[in-house]
């Protein structure tokens, strides 16, 4: 059973889950808040794992693990337009794990993003298993961003590059490593020049996702916006946005942001650029839909990907040739 | 570094953590709620692991793992006097894990305790790792129960038996197992009669902790009460209550609830009863302090353990002989 199948089975079993599992974070109606006012009054809450050997390669610095754990959760809050408020940690680690290095990194990152660690649970385990629950309040003067509010005719936007993080993970798998603060690229990779620069940037993009909180806040203040963060690949996450909103999409594949640099690295490494861009995942850029009259400010460096359509098909066009965009990407159970 | 040392280090690093890490659950001030009114207006939130081979023996039914995971978290909410509201799940499991059996058990337990599963994250892992974040609102007509509100002269109470769950875990380690719905006791244990009945009850107590939510609610409606749940052993958890309230305790060890039956089983098995009662842990009974004028209703079957004192020492008296109660019990990192 894949993750997608399991989620569909769960939604059928419980009508409340059907409502809750639609977005990057659940929105909780709280005491003293009008249940009709969830969009502006409740609390967004999300949980994400970081597990050694699953979400990151063994041997990663405890400090980096902590910062990555917070960042992937904050990315879910960003996709809701939420303001980070509180975090709870579940940390299970081997005896030799440097808990203090981990917590130094986590607390520094919490300060940076103005989120408060309020509790947690510690345990021993054979491998490092972490998960974090993050809470966010609605954006000031705005509302949370449901995936379901996109409409045909909306413009489809991307808040950052796709594919780079997946390239970074591939480089780490090939043996990229830190030693004494220096990042050593794998032997199979160019060691100097523009390609080495791109390679280093890709590795950092994988290790240090950047939650697009300011962009999420801006989206939450618009008249209408739908958003999610790209964690499992552009193709799969776009399918989720379309499914929830009941729309299709025409995507322009010629001109994805960062594509030229990534393509150069892919050529040198023998990788397929499009595969990394569509199915690589862990980009943690926001994918969002806006009415055509609204454009995100230049400062966010967003990129228009295409248009949403009443026709439910998702089409990918590169150099004038269109093809169906397959619903494929990372499934955590398959 | 033990868990206790790590927590003290963390509290020193961040004054906000110093405030947050004092109770079974963190209490979050939420939007639109007067920060001075946290006791009655915020949300209690807690997270606890259940990891295969750490918190339960390998091979436990997915259904039982799910129910145990919910129960240990609800016990923390009970210790706060909170009403369960929402749960988030982090589930990492091997490929062969029966996710549906797990979720059937979890959803049934959520219905039983009237708590709503609102989200989660799934991942693959070598061993079954689960954690759950649980949210509770303040008790109707009452307030949350801080560990810090006990005073000298208060009576110290216990909401249930101690030691039985630890005996159950020992029996499971000796080979107790289910087959076709029947619980088989290990060879070293009496197979019939009163001792076998106690042994079965001990195993069930370990596998199915009973969160004392109704008792917690009642405590939350009293003029003053301090409480926590016994997860790491009576001795260690009593020390935590005393530390937070700045008091000592005189504990009557002659007459702990369920002690006779447990003592009989311990005698047959060659175990030390007092060790299981004081340091066994995972009892999930509430340990609480009340002004002497207040007695818990008979229906809760609580047991008076002793008296809290201005003298910070904790003394354990059995058959007229007193000794210091050592601060020992389960430490998750040592």
Put the structure in a nutshell.
Chain A has helices at 3-13, 15-20, 38-41, 62-79, 99-112, 164-173, 193-207, 213-220, 234-245, 259-269, 273-279; strands at residues 26-28, 43-51, 83-93, 116-124, 129-137, 155-158, 177-179, 182-184, 226-229, 248-252, 286-290, 303-309, 314-318, 321-324.
Explain what this protein looks like in three dimensions.
The structure is a homodimer. With about 325 residues, chain A is of the alpha+beta class. Chain A folds into 2 domains: about 140 residues, 2-Layer Sandwich (60s Ribosomal Protein L30, Chain: A), CATH 3.30.1330.10; about 180 residues, Phosphoribosyl-aminoimidazole Synthetase, Chain A, domain 2 (Alpha-Beta Complex). Helices cover about 35% and strands about 25% of the residues of chain A. The first copy, chain A, contains 11 helices and 14 strands. The mean pLDDT of chain A is about 90. Chains A and B meet through helix 1, helix 2, strand 2, strand 3 and helix 5 of A and helix 1, helix 2, strand 2, strand 3 and helix 5 of B.
């Amino acid at each position: 059973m894949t993750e997608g199948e399991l989620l569909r089975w769960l939604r059928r079993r419980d009508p409340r889950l059907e409502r809750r599992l639609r977005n990057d974070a659940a929105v909780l109606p709280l005491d003293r808040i009008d249940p009709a006012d969830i969009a502006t009054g409740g609390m967004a809450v999300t949980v994400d794992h970081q597990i050694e050997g699953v979400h990151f390669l063994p041997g990663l610095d405890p400090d980096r693990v902590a910062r990555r754990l917070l960042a992937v959760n904050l990315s879910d809050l960003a996709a809701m337009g939420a303001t980070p408020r509180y975090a709870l940690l579940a940390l299970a680690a081997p005896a030799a794990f440097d808990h203090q290095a981990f917590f130094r990194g986590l607390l520094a990152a919490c300060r940076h993003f103005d989120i408060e660690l309020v509790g947690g649970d510690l345990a021993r385990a054979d491998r490092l298993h972490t998960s974090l629950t993050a809470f966010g309040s609605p954006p000031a003067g705005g509302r949370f961003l449901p995936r379901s509010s996109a409409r045909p005719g909306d413009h489809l936007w991307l808040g950052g590059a796709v594919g780079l993080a997946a390239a970074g993970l591939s480089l780490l798998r090939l043996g990229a490593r830190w030693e004494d603060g220096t990042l050593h690229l794998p032997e199979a990779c160019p060691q100097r020049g523009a390609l080495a620069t791109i390679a280093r940037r890709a590795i950092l993009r994988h290790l240090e996702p950047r939650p697009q909180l300011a962009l999420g806040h801006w989206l939450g203040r618009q008249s209408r916006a739908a958003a999610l963060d790209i964690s499992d690949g552009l193709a799969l996450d776009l399918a989720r946005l379309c499914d929830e909103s009941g729309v299709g999409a025409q995507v322009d594949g010629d001109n994805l942001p960062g594509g030229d640099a990534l393509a150069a690295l892919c050529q040198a490494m023998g990788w397929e650029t499009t595969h990394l861009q569509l199915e690589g995942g862990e980009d943690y850029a926001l994918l969002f839909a806006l009415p055509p009259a609204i454009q995100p400010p230049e400062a966010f460096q967003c990129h228009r990907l295409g248009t949403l359509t009443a026709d439910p098909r998702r089409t990918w066009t590169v150099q004038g040739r269109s093809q169906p965009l397959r619903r494929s990407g990372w499934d955590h159970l398959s």
